[in-house]
Amino acid sequence: MRHTEEKLIPARISKVTTKITCDFPDCNREISQQQGDLKEVTIKYETGYRYPEGGSGHTHSIDVCHKCFLDKVAPWFKSQGVHFIESDWDF
After folding, report:
1. Alpha-carbon gap, residue 1 to 77, rounded angstroms
2. 13-57 per-position pLDDT tens digit
3. Which helix (H) or strand (E) holds 85?
4. Burial class (CB in 10 A: 0-12, 13-18, 19+), 64
5. What's the pTM value of the predicted model, to 2 decimals?
6. CA distances to 1, 4, 54, 84 from 57, in Å
7. What is the pLDDT of residue 37?
8. Cα dihedral value 19, 23, 28, 31, nearest 10
9. What does each C-alpha distance from 87 to 3, 30, 50 come to in angstroms?
10. For residue 38, what pLDDT is reported?
């Protein structure tokens, strides 16, 4: 769940994300956005049009902490026959 506050930005007031919490009602754990230990989950569905000169679309997304992903989401996907692609990265 995205928690927002109104903050004064010169010439306008905008909503900015101040924290993100897990969308599972029995969890609500805050999802850290700090540097260091990375545990990020991205679940989204996008529709729209993309062209070299521009585009537009709509996104459906949820915020899930790493614990709920490992304990709830991943087992459900695996029970449906989904095989995760795992890879290492380094930079």
Report:
1. 22
2. 788 888 889 999 999 899 887 767 778 888 899 999 999 999 999
3. none
4. buried
5. 0.71
6. 21, 23, 11, 27
7. 72
8. -40
9. 32, 26, 27
10. 77
